[in-house]
Amino acid sequence: MAKQPKVTRVEVHQFGWEIPDMGVDYNGFNHVYQPGNVARHVGHVLKIETDRGVAGEYVGGTAASYAQVGMAARYLLGRNPLERELIYNDLKRALRKLDRMGIGPIDIALWDIAGKLYDAPISELLGGFRRALPAYASTYHGDENGGLSSPEAFADFAVQCREMGYPAFKIHGWGNGPIEREVATVLATRKAVGTRIDLMIDPACEYNTWADTVKVGKACDEANYLWLEDPFKDGGISAFGHRKLRQIIKTPILIGEHIRGHELHVDNIVADGTDFVRADADYDCGITGLMKIAHSAEGFGLDVEIHAPGPMHRHCMAAIRNTNYYELALVHPKLRRVKPPIYACGYSDELDAIDASGHVPVPQGPGLGVTIDWEWVRAHESGKAVYE
């Protein structure tokens, strides 16, 4: 490229959609099955335009993320979008007093620009070698409404997912419920599916005490779970607390979803706070940040497990050796369509997105390899910000 491309315009589009039969649990944070209720969700699309007529587009992020995107938008104007490493480091310092969540959407959109300019999928730019990825079914939280409302319901859903072809299944249990029910769910699910698939559990930091966590951890030992993730109410950040847990139970621990960026993940590894390393492009400063974490974990001989679904994560996983499963989240036996129909290319992260062997494809088009249905976005748009 003789002339360096430049960013000319940044747009943030906010949209809304509804999910039938969905509500929230005891404190209003976890989404759960609730027949007859309608949940109203808000999503965002970031679009970064260049003087080459190519735009980077990313669906994801939260209102908090886009407050930071707004802080960084003026900085981006006139920048070369291919200088991602420079932009990553500049924004990492500029947002140092915040959680840096705004860097993720920006970096992902910049990678989308690069792929489109070079007419290659992001996975190829990263050195990717996989075209399909094994996925695990990652459930909605347990409810009290006749959905995932008992150990038997989780066990039955795990069997259903196994029969669909999923090689692994992850439980998100209840909040504010008896720990005995969590233990029973761990054991009942393994008994139901046998040894043919991997099982994991993610309490999402709901357990009130370390002692409760030990009880569930010992059940995981008995049932041969692949990992126990973010169990107790430290918020998923205490290296010491999880190191002590690792001394008591045999089941590997997975934390890291709630610490931000490359350096803190390395600190957590060095502090012996986890077995599997968690990473997320949206949370950890983009594809650039995620790949730094993945390669650091590789250097320590550990596996990195990518949090949540999305085209950016399929591209990253395609280029990472030391990883096991793509998280297809969140899924439920009575909720078939929960994500906005925002892609016009057939891309899906719903329960039935896997093939018969439990794999999802890596998009092969330029950049992220997906096409946004802008007509649908505009029809459901509830807000817009433009920086130019």
Task: Report the total helices.
Answer: 12
What is the CATH homology-level superfamily of the largest domain? Enolase-like C-terminal domain
The rough form would be described as globular
The count of DSSP E runs of length 2 or more, i.e. the number of strands, is 13
What would you report as the Rg, rounded to the nearest angstrom?
Answer: 21 Å
CATH class of the largest domain: Alpha Beta
- How many discrete domains? 2
In the CATH hierarchy, the architecture of the largest domain is: Alpha-Beta Barrel
SSE class: alpha/beta
Helicity, as a percent range? 25-40%
Oligomer status: single chain
Give the strand content. 15-25%
Q: What characterizes the major β-sheet?
A: 9 strands, mixed
CATH fold annotation of the largest domain: TIM Barrel
User: Ends: how far apart?
Assistant: 24 Å
Provide a descriptive summary of the structure in words.
A hairpin with a 6-residue loop joins β1 and β2. 35% of the residues lie in helices and 23% in strands. 48% of the residues are buried. It has 388 residues and is α/β, with parallel strands linked by helices. α2 runs antiparallel to α3, α5 packs parallel to α6 and α9 runs parallel beside α10. It has two domains: 139 residues, Enolase-like, N-terminal domain (Enolase-like, domain 1), CATH 3.30.390.10; 233 residues, Enolase-like C-terminal domain (TIM Barrel), CATH 3.20.20. The strands form two sheets. Strands 4, 5, 6, 7, 8, 9, 10, 11 and 12 form a nine-stranded mixed sheet that branches. The model has no long low-confidence stretch (mean pLDDT 98).
